[in-house]
Amino acid sequence: MYLRMRYKLYIIIAASCFLVGAQSDCKRTTNVGYNPVEDDMEDDDNITDCSESVVCPDGTEVIGQGSSCVFDCSAHCLDPTCEPGQMLNDEDSDGCGETCVYVIEQELLCTETGGTWYLAGDSCGHWSCGLPPLCEAEIPGCNCGFGNVFDEFAGCLEDFNCFGVCPEDVWICPDDTEISRTGEDCIFDCTGFCGDLDCPFGVLPDYDGDQCPAGCADSAEHFLCLTTSGFWMELANESFEIHCGELRVIPGREKDNLPLNPIPTCQCPLDHFFESSLGCISDPNCL
Which residues, in sequence order, are CB contacts of 37 under 8 Å at separation 6+? Predict the structure, then answer.
């Protein structure tokens, strides 16, 4: 019986807007890494009339909204078309996706599932069945070893095309239907057997490749965390926190020795923090 594996690894997206000597202007005009409370306190100039504006991708100019003057271009986007396994990345938190990024951070997914990651100068993309790709371009890639291939959602998986025959194992679909591998790729295809998902907070992506969503988000924060490149996790107790994308013991509480008390939270990429209405955004205090 195959065990369903769910991977909740997400892309680490680095902010690139912070030019030396121009951080304040950069943050205010693009909304990258803008922390309304801290930045306004630093400038000693709290914005009340939201008079500043940005130009959205379609050329429309919008002004800030709400008490924090957040720029919202969501109705004026020119979203690029992403390839399978990728999602739009809103780099400047204006409501539009500017670039396509992999849903899961590829190097970490490779090494966590038993593969070896090669840098651009050492590979020409992902290896197949333990053999390097036949090209000369310098593209980073994962070598999962003999009999395995790299999947952008699940990492290293056994590929029975490497051996020429599908195994006689089974998979249990979300509606409890039992299926066998099919097709030239020997995949489990649960299309039509995903069950009825009633997800008030949104559905999770298909991480295991069975053509069904991974399930429902537990909360609005859970869904927002995962869709802004965060990792949903639980802190052991009140002595821990996520600081600049890294788990640590809160300074001064190293000897608390508190009992286990799991606290759901979002671990954002490095140099980011979780904002309840925006998700993972750049934190200028970490730079």
Answer: 68
